[in-house]
Amino acid sequence: MAARREHFGGRSAAILALAGSAIGLGNIWRFPYMVGQTGGAAFIIIYLASCLLLSLPIFLAEAIIGHRTHAGTFGAMERLAPGMKWKWLGLLTVLSPLVILSYYSVVGGWSIGYLWQSLTAGFHLDEIGAVSSAFGRFVAEPWVPLLFHTLFLGGCAWIVSAGVKSGIERFNKITMPLLFLLIVMIMVYSLTLPGARAGVEYLLKPDFSKITPSAVAAAMGQSFFSLSLGVGTILTYASYIRRDENILVTGLGTVGFDLLFALIAGFAIMPAVFAAGIEPGAGPGLIFETLPYIFAKMGASAPWLSGLVAVLFFVTIVFAAFTSAISMYEVGVAYLVEQRGLSRHKATVLIFLGCWILGALCSLSFGPLSGTHIFGLTIFNFCDRLTSNFLMTFGGLLFVIFVGWKMDKTAVRDEFTCGGTARFNTAVFGAFWFLLRYLAPLAILIIFITNFLA
Ligand code: TRP
Questions:
Q1: In the list 32, 86, 258, 338, which could disulfide-bond 22, CB 3.0-4.6 Å?
Q2: d(CA 426, ligand 1 centre) in Å
Q3: C-alpha–C-alpha distance, residues 354 and 351, integer Å
């Protein structure tokens, strides 16, 4: 076991890193299309509630395990519950982020590809034709997406191999403020488009008839995904937070930034969608199909400006994806270094190889391997479904049960209240304990069952 572990420099570095993990494709790609599909403002209200009442307690549970033990997922479980089956949870949560990373890297690669296109040729209506066909052609072609997948994963490897402080922390410190700046700029542009008003109203006027059980489950699942819960990423990053840091403040900061970013992304995308006269419920193709179409359409009247916005937009996506992907990468690296005694460099290379192969299979499943199915799903969809619907929720459930029912309550209280010194934390501990023990397991079970039936 490594004798001296690295740490994040301070509170802001820790929050930036955690927010970097949380803010990603989930905020820019998944959140806006889910809002679109599930009915605008009503969805946002349920989403806010599930972030605070469900995801924050789960986030804190994971963070408490990591911060308490100062070890990666596997080591943490071993230390808190020695010789027990809980260490399998540790192992599961080493593997699931690596599966996510494999297909996430493919989408990250597409984003690099689109950035490349926006820098070189741009988007033109005559080439795009139907909204979706250009994207379909792009992902079905075997070599180019593989090349971009390699670039994306290689970029992650490069950052992670430099270490927690001079790699991950430094990258997040530079990138995160930039991401906020960029998304705000895009939002301002989008809000000034003629016809943007309808998009704003859509995001602000709730239609409560849209609050159905499945919308609630979708909102809870989205807040889970967006905060990177259930796969040990938060645990691992929290293990790099200094001993005396206030976990609740870190958690509130992360959730707050993640929410804020998702909302700004919503206000950056929906007004543009309405301005272009497109159905808001376009689904997962929103970013790679609908938006290039919008850029092309606007380009007809103001080519220079729309070209610039397209570049800024894809830069934002690429870097948001990077900050999330390196957090998944780090979970595997921490395991190999701390439990298997590998050097950081070797661990990085090994994970690159494993994820590259699985990611390549995911990438090819849009083209040459499209006929290969696992449980009736293509390889990409299988990895996505397996992780976001099952492994993340299952891991999250086990984490809250572990902290709420298995871990020593005094230890949990001690972590949560900074050894009793934080007065606000002490005052809200009872509420946290209730949410963690009862509401969170129940809610996760509901998401789990809903996903199972879907
Ligand atoms: N939260 C990330 C996003 O919003 C995606 C994500 C899901 C993730 N699960 C994760 C990131 C696990 C890191 C670890 O895009």
A1: 258
A2: 30
A3: 5
